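User:
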Amino acid sequence: MGFPDRIERTVEVAHPPGKVWAALTTAEGLGSWFGNEATIDLRPGGSAQMKWTGGFTVDMRVERVEEPTVFGFTWHIHGLPEDDPRRTYVEFTLEPVGAGTRLRVVETGFAQLPEDAYRKAYDANIQGWASELGELVVYLDAA
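Assistant: Predicted structure:
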């Protein structure tokens, strides 16, 4: 396929990796910047869920936990029916940089989709990650 299979974004924040890790891997953190409410069982195979005002809910499965440097999960692909088993994989990598942290997020798995579903999911998630990472920075700066 001629589709890019990954979305990759990197942001440097003026906060130590431990603080960024907590924002990514705790219900309190996720529910403050990523959704409006969250639950998480932080272990490979554990489940996580985020809810937004208005009733939108996303279920996730924790896939990788290497505290405090790597956190990965799979989740439903935007635009597909709820019972569709296909998922994308999201991985956060944290690297200390001076007194702060370089945070990289990579989401893969889009190439498994037909062109119409691909474009909808890929474009939505490109916009979503730009927005969500901005919200993460605001959350960290206020915390």
